[in-house]
Amino acid sequence: MSDLVLTERVGNVLVATLNRPEARNALNPALIDELSDVLRSADADSGIRAIVLSGAGTVFCAGMDLKAFAQGGKFDGLVWFFQEGIGTPVIAALNGSALAGGFELVLACDLVVAAEEAKLGIAEVKRGLFAAGGGTTLADRVPLSVALEMGLTGEPVTAAYAWQIGLVNRAVPADRVREEALALAERIAANGPLGVTMTKKLIRQRRWAEPDEVTAVFRSADAAEGARAFAERRAPVWTGK
């Protein structure tokens, strides 16, 4: 690991920070590969129950590093995350703007806390490209007319407006982004991990649970612990089993 992604444990929450502020945290192959490793490792750690993803400096992520792209770099290291995601909930904490591939990284996260003045958008058409990292699924999150305008003009919207249309969960002053994102992550991390993982999976897939999925959670040790803790008026102690 280099220092392209800084990590910090806060209880059961991992805070991961993109760390190329001199390049507006633009995604070059090295940063992409390191972030991929961090996400996979965190998802495999049963002690991590939520992830907060942010950026160093004043910009969350300006998108793909066009200089590296022009030199023929490989940018497919996060395709799996964009398409499949991970079981652990991920909260994007937008300390600043998220554009193009940076915005698509946000779309791959589950919840979004953003600085009110941050800009969000898919600007790829301005560079003769299109939003191949998931930006073309934007109409799943906002009205079709809004998605088309953002995609076809390449013009961003503010986080304050994005909150109004349900694209972000919180739009707050910039100095409160980390605090709000951590508070949200800690509320998630306090819940039963098996139930959280299954809830995320089913909501993402927009479907009912299969019988075996119900059994796996409802007959788990955590389910029994949740009931006991309620009866005994105490906080549950989850094991993830």
TrEMBL record:
Among InterPro entries, the record links this protein to: ClpP/crotonase-like_dom_sf (IPR029045), Enoyl-CoA_hyd/isom_CS (IPR018376), Enoyl-CoA_hydra/iso (IPR001753), Enoyl-CoA_hydra_C (IPR014748)
Q: Which Pfam families match?
A: ECH_1
Q: Which residues cross the membrane?
A: none
Q: Does the keyword Lipid metabolism apply?
A: yes
Q: Which UniProt keywords apply?
A: Lipid metabolism, Lyase
Q: Which Gene3D superfamilies match?
A: 2-enoyl-CoA Hydratase, Chain A, domain 1, Lyase 2-enoyl-coa Hydratase, Chain A, domain 2
Q: Which domain of life is it from?
A: Bacteria
Identify the PANTHER family for this entry.
(7AS)-7A-METHYL-1,5-DIOXO-2,3,5,6,7,7A-HEXAHYDRO-1H-INDENE-CARBOXYL-COA HYDROLASE (PTHR11941:SF169), ENOYL-COA HYDRATASE-RELATED (PTHR11941)
**Which family does the similarity line name?**
Belongs to the enoyl-CoA hydratase/isomerase family.
- Put simply, this protein is called Enoyl-CoA hydratase-related protein
